[in-house]
Amino acid sequence: MHVEFDRDTCVGMYQCVAEWDAFEKDRDAGKATLVGAEETDEDVFSLEVPEGAELDAKFAARTCPVDAIRLYDDDGEQLV
Fold this sequence. Notes:
By secondary structure, this protein is α+β, with helices and mostly antiparallel strands. The chain has two helices and six strands; from the N terminus they run E-H-E-E-E-E-H-E. Keywords: Electron transport, Iron, Iron-sulfur, Metal-binding, Transport.
């Protein structure tokens, strides 16, 4: 399972930060940051979800008010 985060779409509500510790507040930019993620496209970051963090990742994706977080299974099918 992996997560993709579109930082350009992020509006800095930080709900993801409350749900999953892989996200941190970047108050200078007014956006969240996906810690340890690789930039795969301009301002789009990808990270493998560690074992045991799947539920937190789902909550983070579901709480994002602008759908900047997408979660995919190992076959590439979008879950959230």
